[in-house]
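Example for tutorial group B:
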C-alpha cells in the first residue's frame, strides 16, 4: 500500500492511558496478545491474515508535526505526553502465527512485548488490520474449499466498507485461495492478478447488442470476455457464436462469456450447449451476482458447467459473519502474569504458545494451548517476527503466503471444509496454564 494512515487513527482512550502510564511511571515491559474469543456460528476454522500490514504499521508509526500540533491545540494532553509522542518509535518484540495459518478460538495469533505505553498505543490499529483480513481470508478459504476447481475472483471493492477495506479484501481473499481480483490497485500494490470484463452500461450504450460485442472486442482484444445477460442471455450467446468467426479472422479469440443474473445453473447449461454447438467449446462461462457459499455448493452439487465465479458483497463484507469477537489483551506486566476475569471475557494469563498435533495422514487432530515455556508435543505455531522493532524473520511474498495457507487448509480435519458445523476442533488448555490462572486469581484483588 502506498500511504500510511495518520497516527491519530486510534481510539482516544489509548492516548488517555498513555498519558496516565507516563504520569504513574508504568513503563515496564508489557505483553499483549491478539486472539478471537469464539468462532462465529457459521465457521469451523479461521485463517490468520494481516500480519504484513501490522508489521508495516509498527515499523512506520510516527506522529507528524501537524498531528502533534493538533493534539496540543485540543487541550487534552500534557506536555509530557506530547514530548513522548514526538519521539515515538516502536521498540518492542512481535511473535505471531505466520499469515495463512489456520487457527481457532482463544489461540493468540500475535503477541506484542514492549514498554507498556508502546504496547497500548498500537492496540486499535493492530486489531483493525488483523481482524479484517483474518475475517475475509477465512471467508475466502471456505468459498475456495467449496469450489476447488473453479476460478474465483474478488468483485467486492464497490460494496466494501471503504477504500482500504476493498483493497485489503483483495489481498486477504487471495491468501484464502481466490485466483484474483477486479481491484486494479491490488495488482499494483500486491501483484494480485486483475480480472475484468464489461458492464451492462457498455452494451446499453449501443442500439444493437452484437455491435456492442464487436466494438468491445476490437477495443479490448486480449482476454476477451463478453457480458451476455443484458437482455436475453440465450439470444446473446447465439450472437457470440455468430460473431466468433469474424473475430477469429482478425486474430481475436473470445475467451469467455459472463452471466450476471437469473438462474445461473440453468443458464450456464443452455449457454454451454449453444456455445458447444457453435464450435466454441473452448469459450469459458463466468458467472457473478449475489453468490454465497450455498450458491457455490449448488454449482458443484448440480455439476453446472461454470468455469469461473466473481464474488463481491458476500466476500468483501463477510455478510454471514461480518465481525469476529476478537481482543488484544494484557497478559503480563513487569514480569508478572495478568488476566481478565470478566464474565464471558476471561483470558488466560502469560506468554502463550500453541502446539498442533497431526495424525499419520498429516491432518490436524488437536491443539494444545499453554505457557510459552511448557513445551508440548506437536508443532509450535507462534514464531518470532520482530525483535527490538526490527525484523528477525523472513518476510514471505504474498505468493508464498498463499501457498502456505493452501497447505494448511489441506490439513484440516475431514468435514471442516464444508459449511456444516460439526464437532468443534479440540483446543486443550494445558494443566500448567490452568494452574497459572488460579495463581493469578489468588494474587490479584
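The residue assignment follows.
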Amino acid at each position: 500500500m502506498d500511504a500510511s494512515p495518520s497516527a491519530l487513527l486510534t481510539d482516544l482512550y489509548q492516548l488517555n492511558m498513555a498519558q496516565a502510564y507516563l504520569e504513574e511511571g508504568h513503563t515496564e515491559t508489557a505483553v499483549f496478545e491478539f486472539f478471537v474469543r469464539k468462532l462465529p456460528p457459521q465457521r469451523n476454522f479461521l485463517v490468520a491474515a494481516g500480519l504484513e500490514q501490522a508489521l508495516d504499521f509498527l515499523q512506520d508509526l510516527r506522529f507528524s508535526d501537524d498531528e502533534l500540533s493538533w493534539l496540543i491545540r485540543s487541550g487534552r494532553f500534557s506536555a509530557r505526553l506530547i514530548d513522548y509522542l514526538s519521539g515515538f518509535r516502536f521498540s518492542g518484540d512481535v511473535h505471531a502465527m505466520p499469515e495463512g495459518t489456520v487457527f481457532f478460538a482463544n489461540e493468540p495469533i500475535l503477541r506484542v512485548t514492549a514498554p507498556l505505553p508502546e504496547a497500548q498505543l498500537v492496540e486499535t490499529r493492530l486489531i483493525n488490520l488483523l481482524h479484517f483480513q483474518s475475517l475475509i481470508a477465512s471467508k475466502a478459504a471456505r468459498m475456495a474449499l467449496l469450489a476447488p476447481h473453479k476460478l474465483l475472483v474478488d468483485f467486492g471493492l464497490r460494496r466494501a466498507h471503504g477504500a482500504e477495506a476493498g483493497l485489503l479484501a483483495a489481498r486477504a481473499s487471495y491468501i484464502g485461495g481466490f485466483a484474483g481480483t477486479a481491484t486494479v490497485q491490488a495488482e499494483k500494490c500486491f501483484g494480485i492478478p486483475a480480472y475484468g470484463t464489461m458492464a451492462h452500461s457498455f452494451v446499453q450504450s449501443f442500439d444493437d447488442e452484437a455491435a456492442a460485442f464487436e466494438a468491445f472486442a476490437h477495443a479490448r482484444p486480449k482476454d476477451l470476455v463478453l457480458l451476455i445477460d443484458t437482455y436475453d442471455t440465450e439470444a446473446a450467446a447465439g450472437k457470440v457464436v455468430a460473431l466468433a468467426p469474424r473475430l477469429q479472422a482478425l486474430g481475436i479469440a473470445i475467451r469467455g462469456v459472463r452471466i450476471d443474473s437469473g438462474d445461473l445453473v440453468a443458464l450456464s447449461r443452455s449457454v454451454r450447449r449453444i456455445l458447444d454447438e457453435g464450435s466454441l467449446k473452448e469459450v469459458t462461462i463466468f458467472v457473478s451476482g449475489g453468490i454465497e457459499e450455498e450458491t457455490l455448493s449448488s454449482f458443484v452439487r448440480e455439476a453446472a458447467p461454470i468455469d469461473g465465479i466473481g464474488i463481491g458483497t458476500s466476500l468483501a463484507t463477510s455478510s454471514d459473519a461480518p465481525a469476529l469477537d476478537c481482543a488484544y489483551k494484557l497478559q503480563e506486566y513487569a514480569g508478572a502474569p495478568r488476566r481478565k476475569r470478566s464474565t464471558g471475557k476471561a483470558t488466560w494469563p502469560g506468554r502463550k504458545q500453541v502446539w498442533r498435533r497431526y495424525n499419520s495422514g498429516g491432518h490436524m487432530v488437536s491443539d494444545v494451548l499453554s505457557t510459552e515455556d511448557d513445551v508440548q508435543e506437536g508443532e509450535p505455531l507462534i514464531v518470532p517476527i520482530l525483535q527490538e522493532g526490527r525484523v528477525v524473520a523472513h518476510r514471505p511474498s504474498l505468493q508464498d503466503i498463499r501457498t502456505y495457507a493452501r497447505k494448511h487448509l489441506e490439513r484440516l480435519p475431514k468435514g471442516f471444509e464444508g459449511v456444516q458445523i460439526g464437532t468443534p476442533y479440540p483446543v486443550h488448555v494445558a494443566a500448567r496454564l490452568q494452574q497459572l490462572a488460579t495463581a493469578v486469581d489468588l494474587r490479584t484483588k
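The chain has two domains: 12-136+321-443, 145-316. Compare this with the pattern of hydrophobic and polar residues in the output above.
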